[in-house]
Write a structure and sequence with these properties.
By secondary structure, the chain is α+β, with helices and mostly antiparallel strands. It has helices spanning 3-20, 53-68, and strands at 26-33, 38-45. The longest helix has 18 residues, at 3-20. It is globular.
């Protein structure tokens, strides 16, 4: 998956979480990719990323832990309203 595809996927997934899972404050879901049968883990939060300093800091911490592990961040993107 290219960086652009990862960001697009992240934005679309954020929109899905925003409207289908808005009562869940934080969580993780697994998404099976049917094209190659791979699985992607998505970590999400329903906060106000665009306006809340604490939320942005929490995202930075998750991204830092990913860099320290053997996992790769495929993309990051908020929903259109910046909530998820």
């Amino acid at each position: 998956m290219t960086t652009h595809q990862g960001k697009t996927f992240a934005n679309l997934l954020a929109a899905y979480v925003r409207y289908k899972m808005e009562s869940v404050n934080r969580g993780a879901i697994l998404v099976r990719c049917t094209s190659d049968d791979s699985v992607v883990a998505a970590v999400f939060g329903n906060d106000y990323y665009l306006t809340e300093t604490r939320t942005r800091h929490e995202v930075e911490l998750v991204q830092q832990r990913l860099r320290e592990s053997a996992m790769e961040e495929l993309g990051f993107g908020p929903a259109h309203d910046g909530r998820s």
